[in-house]
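user: can you give me the structure for this one chain? tokens are fine.
assistant: on it. calling the predictor now.
[tool input]
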Amino acid sequence: MPGHSKDLTRLRIALTTFFALDGFIFAGWVVRIPAIKEQTGASASTLGLALLGVSAGAVVTMMFTGRLCRRYGSHPVTVVCGILLSLSVALPPLTHSTWALGAVLLVFGAAYGGINVAFNSAAVDLVAVLRRPIMPSFHAAFSLGGMIGAGLGGLVAGSLSPTRHLLGLTVIGLLVTAVAGRALLRYDSPAPKSAPVPQPVPLPQSAPLPQSAPGQPEERAPRRPDTRTRRLVVVFGLIALCTAYGEGALADWGTLHLEQDLDAHPGIAAAGYSCFALAMTIGRLCGTTLLERLGRTRTVVAGGTMAAVGMLVGSLAPSVWAALLGFAVTGIGLANIFPIAVERAGALDGPSGVAVASTFGYGGMLLGPPAIGFMADWFSLPIALTSVAALAAVAAVIGYGTRRATAD
């Protein structure tokens, strides 16, 4: 048993590292969006279409990645996608037109979507074995990585070109993937892989982790979900959509809003996403405690309401510091909603449930960039960003409606 506990701890550390790396690389790209916009000569609407490539690539690959995880295991898929993500982040600064930018962002988005399905599937399996609501802690690592990536990006924005900066992220990403990937590949997922047998399949000798905790082997066995289960997965996917829309909007447009609408210095503007990511990190670090004390329903409803209020302040405030405060409140509010939605979907239908919820979630990011870009051209960017507040409120309403399904 002590050895088993150590194995689970090592597995958790390796997964946490990949979550953090994902946030670090993504944030490093995000803070260079204004420079890439100037380089390509894009307008707000054409930039929105180019940014569509990230979410389009993610959504296209997510369901496919779910099947790959069932066939080959979520751990090898995580490592392969980590390599692809690290390599593809160096491509955007090499472009000089919005069409070329959109094409390379499609590749970046495919790697980003793949790794998100893979490591979330692995995390759901580990949560089931540990029987504790630790999913927010993994997403806290993503937010922490995003905070560090955005902060570092703000520091080097004035001294390093986007090409050198993002190439540096490639080197870091490959090194981290080599170390954490080696640790991750030592173990198979605790949950059984898809197989046409009713009983769990024993792990090979190279993977010492047991399939699941005693007394619940069939709970994680692959099975065809019924209609009610599929509908619940879709509902949790809608919650993920509403919140991912907000995360994507602040990632893609928050820096631009501070710099263009509030005349913030580029370094301060870059700190806007860092502030948002820090708030999400704090919220997610407290997520397990919140879930144990409040339950999923209250956490989702309170978070959605807080995010709605915070984003109204962040988008309509007349000063930089008030906007930063609004971004922080929004981050705390959104922090645990997406992890809860993905964990519930995964508990209901394994990697396929994670893939469905993630597809809906990144469908929110797919909708967000062009929608906000067009609304910014029609009205203004601050008005466009209020749509984040509206969808956060919708997530709170849906969360309250699913209170019986979450059993708390």
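assistant: here you go. The CA atoms of residues 329 and 336 lie 13 Å apart. The first helix runs from residue 2 to 30.
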